[in-house]
Amino acid sequence: MKNTTSKSAILLIHCADQKGIVISVTEFIYKNGGNILYLDQHVDTERQVFFMRIEWDLHDFVIADEKIGEYFETLVAGRFSMNWRLHFSDEVPRMALFVSRLPHCFYDILARYEAGEWKVEIPLIISNHNDMQNAARRLGIDYAYLPISRENRAEQERKQLELLGQYRIDFIVLARYMQILGDVLIGNYPDRIINIHHSFLPAFPGARPYHSAHERGVKIIGATSHYATAELDAGPIIEQDVVRVSHENSIEDMIRKGRDLEKIVLARAVWNHLHHNVLVYQNRTVVFE
Amino acid sequence: MKNTTSKSAILLIHCADQKGIVISVTEFIYKNGGNILYLDQHVDTERQVFFMRIEWDLHDFVIADEKIGEYFETLVAGRFSMNWRLHFSDEVPRMALFVSRLPHCFYDILARYEAGEWKVEIPLIISNHNDMQNAARRLGIDYAYLPISRENRAEQERKQLELLGQYRIDFIVLARYMQILGDVLIGNYPDRIINIHHSFLPAFPGARPYHSAHERGVKIIGATSHYATAELDAGPIIEQDVVRVSHENSIEDMIRKGRDLEKIVLARAVWNHLHHNVLVYQNRTVVFE
Amino acid sequence: MKNTTSKSAILLIHCADQKGIVISVTEFIYKNGGNILYLDQHVDTERQVFFMRIEWDLHDFVIADEKIGEYFETLVAGRFSMNWRLHFSDEVPRMALFVSRLPHCFYDILARYEAGEWKVEIPLIISNHNDMQNAARRLGIDYAYLPISRENRAEQERKQLELLGQYRIDFIVLARYMQILGDVLIGNYPDRIINIHHSFLPAFPGARPYHSAHERGVKIIGATSHYATAELDAGPIIEQDVVRVSHENSIEDMIRKGRDLEKIVLARAVWNHLHHNVLVYQNRTVVFE
Amino acid sequence: MKNTTSKSAILLIHCADQKGIVISVTEFIYKNGGNILYLDQHVDTERQVFFMRIEWDLHDFVIADEKIGEYFETLVAGRFSMNWRLHFSDEVPRMALFVSRLPHCFYDILARYEAGEWKVEIPLIISNHNDMQNAARRLGIDYAYLPISRENRAEQERKQLELLGQYRIDFIVLARYMQILGDVLIGNYPDRIINIHHSFLPAFPGARPYHSAHERGVKIIGATSHYATAELDAGPIIEQDVVRVSHENSIEDMIRKGRDLEKIVLARAVWNHLHHNVLVYQNRTVVFE
């Protein structure tokens, strides 16, 4: 991938496949002084859908940043009925982190944050437990302790929504958050809630997948990061990976091996989300890596 | 693993976990002049079951080969209510190969056979199609063409059983055989029918798993080799492996990548079966590799 | 990747990175009635080199097939000082297979050939041994038995060259061919001789890599497919893969595990070569998969 | 692996392969009331060396813990000229952590420590930089800042040795510590200094392996955890793993992907060291997992 110190624009597009899309998009950029840094396109031939991620250097681009969207819609996108999103390389998205009691994904994300691995702001942690408060405090991140019971669920979900709005959160990462999210929350953040499930989906959805994997006697276990949707563990998959197990591995061994897998898989998904590499279409992802 | 040019015995044991099993088995071998080449044991702590594979050199062993079973039962196994199987390193098991029209696993097995990779005899190929007759003929393997229809299914299954008996078949390999086996056949060869399923079970059992994997948008596909049981695609798993796919891969690409995976996974399972590395207990395998 | 039943053209390009390359190439295709099926580009930012693979449907393309190269050179390539190659989807390249005595890669390739997995013609097998003659004969492939000794090496290499010319060979696959190729032969087929080396290069080049891997105590072994160059085992790498080993694995176990790895890695490299996915630049490959 | 709540003993043995080793060791345990929880043995048939890891429950064992070593030496080990080490399951080894400026492995280890993943005490961090002082302080770990220059190297190494003694350190983990250790230090902690090297050794030893990997155009990168020895990057390998890269990956991408690999591989090596799973013999490891 090209590196550039100057600012660049990233355009993510999908639409019905037609002749002339590539030329129209590249012409729009080139004729207006943009230097294409990176172009990736893909056609889903079964569904006849075209996907593109294109990134260009804005240094000599003649259209002002805040006008690019309007011009692109008028000159190109409208003609092809494109769905598109525009991002700039200097954006710093705001992430909210949801966590319960299992710390491995949570700590891993905070370590990356502290080390500056990701271009992201984490202003808010939401948890149904108190355990991680110290970790949040030492990094200066606000920590909302919202315990969930059958009685207060609706009330707490309203508070979550308020907080997410108040902190202007762009996307949410569920770092082994053990509660089911409210429908309104999920509906408000489409393709912007990243979950990690501790199995190789669609095998072993739901609770206790390592127990099920052990019971079934599989020789490989996995982890899956996906966008949360209304249907549990059924959202579009962003990343998966696996690790070998054997008859010698107890459920505890699987949980231990799985921890490392979960944090790596979740981190890769977040990284791709942050770099605007992910397009969702009909519950599947196109990941331009 | 130890290599030895002289003949060795292999004992596979499982029983309820108790004190004194290891010492009793090793004593039986040592006191009678056997040199232990390889010992592997495993305890399933949840089910409290003990598993062992032990191999010893017969060069100075004082008990005659044909008496070892009787002596072991009397002196050791009976006391611990052991389930056990005894094999000798100079046995050459007889394999029947079932195939339909997809040739990749079939050709791969024949190439290994021709190259002498496996210590096995393949006297019989059974197929519901005629396609592979030439390949069988050039290796001098008998080929039974038994097309299956709704009407003749019972009749053909009876013929299959007769042939398997007539050719003194020890175990069966289903090299992408696209027919469901009869219950009697499955019942007659418990833990001795090795199937290859073209998905990462328990994900995508049944027909057209690559289509389902593509539809679900998984990022990794797999193959699973297992012993066939009465319940389809639910038998004890011997070996699994996976390969990465991306949004760029069509179903055809998945099928292509899967072919290579299937043949490797099936071959590993057969190899472990041939080396008496596999113990089955409660629908799971212990694979002593 | 897009599938199309009609004929398509594939253009592989590399040149110094400059503004306007993508637009110029896509314009050339679009303005002349071509429908872009697949476009992949890459910029090596360190070396400032641009790479592209573009494929388009020729159904409505107004330039005759045999004129495309000339027009492209005149209208586009010359301006950017491009290196380029043009292929057509209906080409069937002619492969020569070199083999010694180890059969696994050889059999695997012939099985794929027989099964029609690859769009390729194999008119010629060259070997310094007689062993594989039968396999060649049954597929109707000519087999040149050219044993190599210190004395006849130069003479045999001349014969190899003659045969390659006579059979109009496009590219060569060394299926564990255990002889070093002559410099003239290597010079005549730049980036068109595909070798498989049985290690994870650059670890363990040269002879007996499994022995060296065992000696060093590595926990993973690999295989590498690369284009042969004058320097042994140092050519541009097309594909690599690995498999886990443990202290329990003897050298024989490594050789056995490695066999499966070698044939898969070699097959993937050949597949990518056949699909014109591979560009070589400064001893490295760009593989557009 | 068996779990037990009561205390167990772990014996690691290697010696020249002879008849009667297994029976002698198991007899020693069984006759004295020990219940074998786990037994793994391995014979290196080329070198004719026998390796064993055996763990037994001490609940009914009649020999007092502090006498087991003496009795074992007298009754068993002496006879076979065994090298052996005895551990108890309730030991909590003391680890010193060496770090420079790269934080990923360091943070990962501290997160595991804080989460209680490992049975270990970390009383001391040694660094040639000041950067990680805060992380150490918040976990209450002493931090020795010992900057290294050509002039003070010998002096600082003496201080390191003093600190290691003073804190009764059992083993050292080099979490991307960028200095070469002194020979005395290495000599004092044989097979007890765990390093992580950011390549698939023996490929790319020394400095800047990701740069070399990129230059060579490999398709897979790796990480290797090994015991540090006098010869740089040549010590016995404990664990390795790899991740796929492509032509699209810049050196920065490799470094990013490698970070995750390094921390996982190092953690697995430390885990195996902590569980007394690792035996070293002639610069190779036997890892009983």
Structure description:
Four copies of one chain form a homotetramer. By secondary structure, chain A is α/β, with parallel strands linked by helices. Chain A folds into two domains: 8-88, Alpha-Beta Plaits (2-Layer Sandwich), CATH 3.30.70.260; 94-287, Rossmann fold. The first copy, chain A, is 34% helix and 29% strand. Chain A contains eight helices and 13 strands. A seven-stranded mixed sheet of chain A has the order 7-6-5-8-9-10-11, sandwiched between helices. A four-stranded antiparallel sheet of chain A has the order 2-3-1-4, with helices on one face. In chain A, strand 8 (171-175), helix 6 (183-188) and strand 9 (193-197) form a beta-alpha-beta unit. In chain A, helix 1 (21-31) runs antiparallel to helix 2 (65-80) and helix 3 (104-115) runs parallel beside helix 8 (251-274). The longest helix of chain A is centred in the C-terminal third of the chain and has 24 residues, at 251-274. The radius of gyration of chain A is 21 Å and the shape is globular. The relative contact order of chain A is 0.12. The mean pLDDT of chain A is 95. At the A-B interface, strand 11 and strand 13 of A face strand 11 and strand 13 of B.
